[in-house]
From TrEMBL:
Single GO molecular function: hydrolase activity
EC number: 3.1.2.-
Taxonomic lineage: Bacteria, Bacillati, Bacillota, Bacilli, Bacillales
Record-linked PANTHER family: 4-HYDROXYBENZOYL-COA THIOESTERASE FAMILY MEMBER (PTHR31793), NOVEL THIOESTERASE SUPERFAMILY DOMAIN AND SAPOSIN A-TYPE DOMAIN CONTAINING PROTEIN (0610012H03RIK) (PTHR31793:SF27)
Taxonomic superkingdom: Bacteria
Presence of the UniProt keyword Hydrolase in the record: yes
UniProt keywords, alphabetically: Hydrolase
Enzyme class (EC, first level): hydrolase
CDD domains documented for this protein: 4HBT (cd00586)
Family to which the UniProt record says this protein belongs: Belongs to the 4-hydroxybenzoyl-CoA thioesterase family.
Protein name per UniProt: Acyl-CoA thioesterase
Amino acid sequence: MMKSIKSVEVRYAETDQMGVVYHANYLVWLEMGRTQLIKDLGFDYAGLEQKGYLSPVLDVSIQYKQSVRYGETVTVKTWIDSYSRLKTIYGYEVIKEDGSVAATAKTIHTLVHKETFRPVSLQKVDVEWHEAYAKACVNV
């Protein structure tokens, strides 16, 4: 299983009045991790959009384990948990500097035509990308 690593320095603007990272900012970190994974596999999400396709999020599940605060650096580990004809499930861990897990998450995505939003198989859009996902995922 391939895991991608993305380091994130927590910015003050990401924290709430208690000095803790506001929960919605984890979604941004997940996107950063997913983008890094795609890049590590040799692809570019912007290129997919230029071809006329989008990969909307269908579902997000985050389990918050412990707080992250301003000044800390976290590591977002991202992998392809499951990949099928019309659905990709990404897995994530947000790891603190001491190695403890701050959060775990999963996001579910599909691929659609930009104009019609009709689902399409990645295999029909980009065979090499499809093969890379099939090879990198935990469960096909």
